[in-house]
Every structure is written in structure tokens, then in C-alpha cells.
């Protein structure tokens, strides 16, 4: 058990909420597109079919979405640590 009095929590900013929800949405969409590619491959779609219609976009979402979500989460963590550190110095 901690002996330090925690006091009121640091308020959550609008930017923090946006980064959290955007990262979660982007990661979930990337996973869904990844499984769509796996299911499409398992059903016997030809390689030519993956180059048509919406499949190039479905393939690009996990390629760019997962790294972008990871960067957003790292930025969110860094911002949170900096904000809590500055709040602790003020006490």
C-alpha cells in the first residue's frame, strides 16, 4: 500500500481521448481487414482478384494502420508521462 497521498487525478484532455479512440479504431479496423484477407485467401480467391475492386485498400489498411496506431499509442503514453510528471512537480 502506498504511503503517498495521491490527491486529485490529472484531468484527461480532449487530445488524449482522440488519440486513444483513433488508435483503438485504427487497430481494430486493421485486424478486421487482416482477417478479411485471410478468409479471402482461404476461400480460394485468385491472386488476380486481390488486385481488383476494394482489395488493394483492404490490404493497405493493416500495412499502414497498425504502425500508425502503434505510434499514436506511444505518443499518448509519452504525453501522459509528461503531464503526470509536471503535475507531480507542482505539488
Written description of the protein model:
With 91 residues, this protein is mostly helical. It has helices spanning 14-42, 55-90.
Compact description:
This protein has helices at about 15-40, 55-90. With about 90 residues, it is mostly helical.
Tell me the β content. under 5%
Shape: rod-shaped
Question: Number of helical segments?
Answer: 2
The low-pLDDT segments are none
Largest sheet: none
Name its key features:
transmembrane; single chain; rod-shaped; 91 residues; mainly alpha; Multidrug ABC transporter ATPase
List the helices and strands and how they pair.
Blueprint: H1 14-42, H2 55-90
Transmembrane segments: 18-42, 54-82
Organism: Microbacterium aerolatum
Keywords: Membrane, Transmembrane, Transmembrane helix
